[in-house]
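Project standup — Tuesday

K.O.: blocked on the structure for the chain from last sprint. Re-posting the sequence here as requested.
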Amino acid sequence: MSPFSGMGANLAMLDGAGLAEALIERPTVDEAVTVYERVLLPRSAEAAEGAAEAIDDAFSPDGAARVLAHMEVPERAPGPAAGRVSG
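H.V.: unblocked you, prediction finished:
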């Protein structure tokens, strides 16, 4: 399954931060948007390709199994619990 599935909110936040940074660093809005789009457009195209792959996977003959496998929580390796403070 694609690494981009479920990343819409993350990409939106990253895009907002990138645009804000460009607006701070450039003297005009037009320049800021031009610089921002140089990063945004390739990243968006890559995410769209990943989303298309995920849709193809979901609607494949074994799509239900693929979607379920994507949603399963992987087993943790034996050891201390994450975030547990000892002492």
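K.O.: great, moving the ticket to review. The chain has a mean pLDDT of 81. Residues 8-71 form one domain.
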